[in-house]
Amino acid sequence: MKTTERKIVYDEILKSEAFHLEGIFQPFPNHFHEYYVIGLIEKGKRKLFCKGREYLAVEGDILVFHPGDNHSCMQEDEEELDYRGLNIPKDTMTALVQELTGKGELPGFSQNLIRDQETACCLKNLHELLMARDRDFSKEEKLFFLLEQLLQKYRQPFFEEIPLCREEIQEACRFMEENLDKPVSLEQICRYTGLGKSTLLRAFTREKGITPYRYLETLRINRARKLLEEGRSPVEAALETGFSDQSHFTNYFTSFTGISPGSYRDIYQRKAGWEKEKSRLKERTGTGKHGE
């Protein structure tokens, strides 16, 4: 059995993250992201659940998740998982699609699991450049080629909102979003929405594809990511997102993202240091000053 490794690299040019998970056995709970995920299974089999459908993801498969797509996965056999992929923010994706199609809009893709050897090869080549922190513009070319292939073969209309739901479910979501830093109980949500516990659980899960508790935990982890990216400590991020216990926060964050809060923060600290150094170099060389 090889050692488990988890790496994330932020690319300033592409405004996206590349991640690489090797030797993974852990299941990933039902959750969603606020950004696009385009991933590649390099080794292992996973039983994948996405938006009410079940898939068997195997070596060579591409996984595509839109913002808001609820999904989970678990080990299918004894072989560990090797998985690489990209996290692309919505504003970055909009700008890329604008360049490719002339329309600044969020794209939709017809499949969450894609079997396409040519596209998989393109994704792997791009990912290797990002993980190596390559500064050549070849990575930009490869990203455009990757998205162009996906758009040409699998594009469909994209609806940014999670499927429309009843007013009570919208109120439940709003209540959780406004109380991320506080303990939240099912009873509080029920009082706020006027629904009974059983009715709320059935209606919420039917409309969102995820339970209220898992929805709340996902909101908290997404908020914690942003705080860590801003340089806040894991302790601060835990307290400001309603996790009273540090180990509970660390376990949840790692189960959702595949990397610990401290390691995630370090990635963005290095990014901030690089930007500061770049700014100093510009000032020293007089970049941007006319006639100097």
TrEMBL record:
Q: Which organism is it from?
A: Candidatus Blautia avicola
What UniProt keywords apply to this chain's record, in alphabetical order? DNA-binding, Transcription, Transcription regulation
Task: List the InterPro entries.
Answer: AraC-bd, AraC_XylS_family_regulators, Homeodomain-like_sf, HTH-like, HTH_AraC, RmlC-like_jellyroll
Q: Domain HTH araC/xylS-type, which positions?
A: 170-267
The family database entries (PANTHER family) matched by this protein are listed as: HTH-TYPE TRANSCRIPTIONAL ACTIVATOR RHAS-RELATED, TRANSCRIPTIONAL REGULATORY PROTEIN
- Please state what the protein is called: AraC family transcriptional regulator
The taxonomic lineage of its organism, from the top, reads: Bacteria, Bacillati, Bacillota, Clostridia, Lachnospirales
Record field: transmembrane: none
Annotated SUPFAM superfamilies: Homeodomain-like, Regulatory protein AraC
Q: Name one GO molecular function term.
A: sequence-specific DNA binding
